[in-house]
Amino acid sequence: MPTGARLWGRTTVGVRCAGERPWTVYLQAKVTVQATYYVAARQIAPGEPLSAADLVARDGDLTVLPLAVITDPAQAIGSTALARISAGLPLRQDLLKSAASVSAGQTVRVVAAGPGFTISAEGSALANAAPGQSVRVRMAAGQIVTAIVKDAGTVEIPL
């Protein structure tokens, strides 16, 4: 495959024989990605939080779905709908707002870990953030650090 080429969809593959009588044949191919994704089990109103009961697993070709389609239920459970989502519609990350597990002003445990050591201290979150998102935290001495939310009360400084 050429550098930068999409790894799925329609493509052309060249097959070469470098023997005594070299030849090249180009073949059309269609690459699909079969996986489980999730659709809305019912109509979901804007601002409504999603639970496991709101998700229905489907198996299919991800190449014909939007790039942001939800493939892990943890990506959707606890999130809030940003717009009306019709029953049966594939759930997408851009239709959902992650549930904040850290709120502005909340005291959080700030952890920095490396080979053979772990340092932790308390700080105050400066914004709301969900797991996996970055958040700025004011430390007791006043310095501001950026950390990644791990859970409801813990953030980690990447080293």
Briefly summarize what is shown.
The protein has 159 residues and is an all-beta fold.
Could you explain the architecture of this structure?
- With 159 residues, the protein is mainly β.
- The protein folds into 2 domains: 34-97, Alpha-Beta Complex (Type Iii Antifreeze Protein Isoform Hplc 12), CATH 3.90.1210; 107-156, SH3 type barrels (Roll), CATH 2.30.30.
- 0% of the residues lie in helices and 44% in strands.
- It is built from no helices and 11 strands.
- The protein has a 5-stranded mixed beta barrel with strand order 7-8-9-10-11.
Largest sheet: 5 strands, mixed, barrel
CATH topology of the largest domain: Type Iii Antifreeze Protein Isoform Hplc 12
Shape: flat
Q: Structural class given helices, strands, pairing?
A: mainly beta
The helix-strand sequence is: EEEEEEEEEEE
The CATH architecture of the largest domain = Alpha-Beta Complex
Low-confidence stretches: none
Number of helical stretches of at least 4 residues: 0
Gap between N and C termini: 35 Å
Number of domains: 2
The count of β-strands is 11
On the 0-100 scale, what is the average pLDDT? 90
> What is the CATH homologous superfamily assignment of the largest domain?
Antifreeze-like/N-acetylneuraminic acid synthase C-terminal domain
Strand content: 35-45%
CATH class of the largest domain equals: Alpha Beta
CA radius of gyration is: 23 Å
> Percent of residues in helical segments?
under 10%
Which strand order do you get reading across the main beta sheet? 7-8-9-10-11
